[in-house]
Amino acid sequence: MAGNSSRREFLKDLGAGAVGAVAAGSAGLAAADKPASSSAAPAAPAMWKPVSDRKIRLGVVGGGFGASFDWHRHPNCAVVAVSDLQTGRRDGLMKVFQCEKSYGSLEQLVLDDKIEAVAVFTDAPSHGRHCVEVMKRGKHCISAVPAAMNIEDCQKLKEIKEKTGLKYMMAESSYYHSAVIRGRNLYAQGCKLVYSEGHYYHDGVTRIDSWKNWRYALPPMLYPTHSTAYYVGVTGKRLVKASCLGWRGEGEEWRRNQYDNAPFVNESAMFYTSENTMFRCNVFWKCDAGGESGGHIWETRPTVDVPSSVPLPPSLSAGGHGGSAGPIVNEFVMAIVEDREPAINIYESLGMTAPGIVAHQSALKNGEVLDVPSIDKKPA
After folding, report:
1. What backbone torsions phi and psi does residue 370 show, to the nearest 5 degrees?
2. Residues with Cβ < 8 Å from 16, sequence gap 6 or more?
3. Is residue 303 a part of any domain in this protein?
4. What is the C-alpha separation between 367 and 245, in angstroms, rounded?
5. Is the Cα dihedral 336, 338, 339, 343 positive or negative?
6. Rounded Cα–Cα distance for residues 32 and 28 (Å)
7. Share of the chain above pLDDT 70, in %
8. What is the pLDDT of residue 34?
9. What is the percent of the chain with per-residue pLDDT over 90, rounded to a whole number?
10. 117 within a domain of the structure (yes/no)
11. Mutual orientation of helices 346-364 and 151-164 as an angle, nearest 10°?
């Protein structure tokens, strides 16, 4: 995830789960997305109920974005160690989580036998490698987005998860936006999509200070999951073909950089889905808009009222990033407590991540239609 909540402004939904106002064609999508009985309030989610008094022993790595999740406020979680390469951030994590133990690196933290799960909020290019290291050491893993930044790392992540059987989850904020929760519940009720779209707009993000300057000239579609969650996170289906165009940035940043001199500051893709529908995806680093948004057009106007939020323990607030921080914490912790796969499991995570990687390659080939490789469940 890019940045902290002080740098983000989320667009309000127009109606129950409608498209944000900055989206192209937002008025039509908003009207199509409202239920016929739009005057009624969304159905309330079930109440959260404790199932165990067990506390997961968690290690948190990454003192920037990693400090914005209230792991210590969940009744089934205790932060027992933290890590960051920078002393100041390490101390900050210890203060936030009221934790007395710290390590100078992720590689040191994962050797601690008392830790059973690790939250990886390091630099995005290292996510794949770091998550593999965590699971190699026998620990469950949640990471910031994206899960990986190349197809090779996607495959390695899938392989280590399947080999170890440990839990993996990607902390995708859009998955728990009200529009996506509502869409997911409508889809589960049998409502059929004909079109959907997702957008992530973050002007100037490539100029924000980052570890080893990884944000500098970052190709937009290598950070796709805030957008792709608006389809994959609703349907559980896949984006199978991509055609993407890019808008070239101006200045040295876009002529010489660590991403093979990637030239595009904005990228816009059309995807063909596994259920024969269309999904449009925008990721822009230069624009007059901000936030994560999206929308859905259904085959027929939904007439059912469904929840647009999820239950949380009383001690845990919904938090920042569109009210997603609390649900992300709860889902990962409870997946371990209940010994089940998290909702954003390895396959859903890669289903949101890999299409963007392919879309960027399409943009470099002037919009050539490319197949998105299947990185899904291992054969039975």
Report:
1. -120, 145
2. 33, 34, 35, 38, 42, 178, 182, 308
3. yes
4. 5
5. negative
6. 6
7. 89
8. 53
9. 82
10. no
11. 170
- Pairing, β 77-83 against β 102-103: parallel
- Domain at 274, CATH number: 3.30.360.10
Q: Which two tokens stand for residue 253?
A: 């940043």
Please state the rounded mean pLDDT for residues 270-281. Answer: 98
pLDDT, position 29: 62
Q: Check the CA dihedral 14-18-20-26 and report its sign.
A: negative
| 178-220 pLDDT, tens digit each | 999 999 999 999 999 999 999 999 999 999 989 899 999 999 9
Residue-wise DSSP of 287-341: SS-EEEEEEEEESS-------SS----TT----HHHHTHHHHHHHHHHHHHTTS-
What pLDDT was estimated at residue 261?
A: 95
Residue 171 belongs to some domain of the structure: no
Q: Give the Cα separation of 292 and 140 in Å (integer).
A: 28
Domain count, the chain: 1
Rounded to whole angstroms, how far apart are CA atoms 276 and 247? 28
- How many angstroms separate the first and last alpha carbons of the chain? 33
Contact yes or no for 239/351 (Cβ under 8 A): yes
In a domain, 301, yes or no: yes
Per-residue model confidence as pLDDT tens digits over 91-106:
999 999 999 999 999 9
Is the distance from CB of 256 to CB of 276 less than 8 angstroms? no
Give the range of the structural domain holding residue 210, as residue numbers without chain letter.
Answer: 5-43+176-309+346-371
Q: How far apart are CA 294 and CA 183, in angstroms?
A: 11
Q: SS3 of 271, please?
A: strand
pLDDT-based confidence at 295, cuts 50/70/90? very high
CB 90 within 8 A of CB 102: yes
Which of 59-68, 196-205, 264-273 bottoms out in mean pLDDT, i.e. has the lowest? 59-68
Neighbour tally for 137: CB within 10 Å:
19
